[in-house]
Amino acid sequence: MCEEKSNEITSVPRLLDKVDVSGCIVTADAMSFQKAIIDKIRGKGGDFLIELKANQRTLRYGIEDNVELAEPVDVYSEGPFLEHGRIETRVCRIFRGNDLITDREKWNGDLTVIEIRTATERKSDGQKSSERRFYVSSFYGSARRLSTIARMHWAIESMHWDLDRNLRQDFIRRKSARSARNLDTIQRMVLAILSIWKGKRKKRSDKAKGTAELIRGLSSDFTVMMHMLAQK
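-> structure tokens emitted (232 positions)
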């Protein structure tokens, strides 16, 4: 939890002071790609793998331009495979940061740059899409290993997306820290139960429904209960 008038950028370093990350690989979203945060992780004997977006504009667009002419040191491809109603192919390419990062001293030495491209086709209507993500890591590993670590972080991001998008976590007002923690715990339990239920459904029509449709099908009493808990 962040203090009032604070955010993740200032809260993450305080969290790291309380956690032993020695020998671990810390993953986080793009907001945590800050020099103070990655220096603290490395100073405590850990490594990091963090997505790179436009909040670090110079670094992101510099890498995006330089990667077009660079040779990857390793490549790992997986797919096509069917997952969540989509046929997906992934390609992970890794590069040495010495070839791509112009201000290496600012970011505390040589780093690994990871590019992951995904191509997706929806099985229901054949609609195709593609996505390109960049990550920066202090960990030196194979493309397969780094791709696996990135996918493990996607699972965490997916859970938070379900909490925010489908359970409307950010839209429910809470009057105290205790109610916020209680409500968060209950919402995670509900999400876990729904995930188990989705895996056990037998009807094909039910299997096609997403989490949002399942939640809309719940009784209004559940929604009322959630708001009552938020007030306590």
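The CA atoms of residues 38 and 48 lie 7 Å apart.
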